[in-house]
Amino acid sequence: MKPEALLHPTPAGLYCPPGDFYIDPVRPVDRAVVTHGHADHARSGHGAVLATPETLEIMATRYGEDFTERRQSAEIGEVVNLNGVALWLVPAGHVLGSAQAVVEHKGTRMVVTGDYKRRRDPTCAGFEPVPCDVLISEATFGLPVFRHPDTAGEVAKLLHSLEQFPERAHLVGAYALGKAQRIIRHLREQGYDETIYIHGAMQRLCDLYERLGVPLGPLAPATVKDGRGAKQDFEGKVVVCPPSAMGSTWARRFPDPVIAFASGWMRVRQRAKQKGVELPLIVSDHADWDELTDTVREVDPHQLWVTHGREDALVRWAEVEGRVARPLHLIGYEDEND
User: Fold this and answer.
1) What CATH number is given to the structural domain containing 93?
2) Which InterPro entries match (predicted)?
């Protein structure tokens, strides 16, 4: 069958007519398949949601009583029949519970990567390439300028700064789901065993990661006391917070803080400067240019459909390689940490 008959873009998101379901819909639908727990992909208000057990736990934690959908848990690799369409989930390496959606019907197989990365992440299962007829790939960092450095080296920069400035608190801006826990785990792996302080907005998700088997070590609330206590409590400490908190009055109560930000966008010096970042850490949960192109070559699909970001550059690269490619221009998805 033609790929467009199996999956095609609509204003609500990617729709599968024979299976009557959407993948990561941006509007409420009767049945949603959700690739991971970030809010731009995992929205509430659907009639039913199918996702990995971890993603369902994350959605329940984030939405609480508003998460009233019927829930269908699908383990990695478990084939689910949806109106005659075979669907199964494969690790995406993005955050805990993240998955690619593999859709197969009448001899046509399509893979929706969702958000993904190829480098090792100690908080989630690694990406697994799946041969297919059509690969629908994200392209958040789909420009050749985006080549992410080794993660251990970026975390070493933070550890080195702690040694250089033991009298200053180090505020690390990181997305509350996935990035924060990953930074904490990398710090632990590189020998940092002191208490790490976390913003209150991260407490529930860090607790969930621990409950789901990702040890984060000693954590404590980053509660800043008025007066003389704050300086003594947070000198030389790591404080992990949402990016939105870095410019708030909350952040200004710490002792002469070093402002760090963990994001793939820190490759762009002007963006770091605009955000007042003293210590940019190029740590991304998305594939960089080499990961994107290497994945296309490895999967070797008959067609490449590109979405979520810098679509035109990756489409052009594929065409130069002699591949059939097209942009999807899906709306409603946000870039990392925006």
Assistant:
1) 3.60.15.10
2) MBL, Metallo-B-lactamas, RibonucZ/Hydroxyglut_hydro, Xnuc_lig_assoc
Task: Please tell me the predicted confidence (pLDDT) of residue 230.
Answer: 61
Nearest-angstrom CA–CA distance, 110 and 301: 9
Closest CA to 305 of 168, 122, 76, 113: 113
Domains: count for the chain:
2
Tokens of residue 115, six digits: 């958000």
Q: Which of 64-68, 113-117, 276-280 bottoms out in mean pLDDT, i.e. has the lowest?
A: 64-68
| Six token digits for residue 203 | 């407490």
- Both 176 and 118 in one domain: the answer is no
Long-range contacts of 71-78 (CB under 8 A, 24+ apart): 72/48, 74/50, 76/52, 76/125
pTM here is: 0.93
Which residues lie across from 219 on neighbouring strands?
A: 196
* Nearest residue to 10 (alpha-carbon basis) of 329, 334, 337, 335: 329
Please tell me whether residues 295 and 242 are part of one structural domain.
no
pLDDT tier at 8, thresholds 50, 70, 90: very high
Q: What is the pLDDT of residue 90?
A: 98
pLDDT of residue 287 exceeding 70, the answer is yes
Average pLDDT over residues 293-308: 97
Per the structure, the complete domain to which residue 272 belongs is given by 151-281
CA distance linking residue 10 with residue 330, whole number of Å: 8
For residue 93, what are the contacts with CB-CB under 8 A and spacing of at least 6? 116, 117, 118, 119, 121, 124, 125, 126, 127
Please indicate, yes or no, whether residues 85 and 160 belong to a single structural domain of this protein. no
One domain, residues 160 and 264: yes
Domain contains 334: no
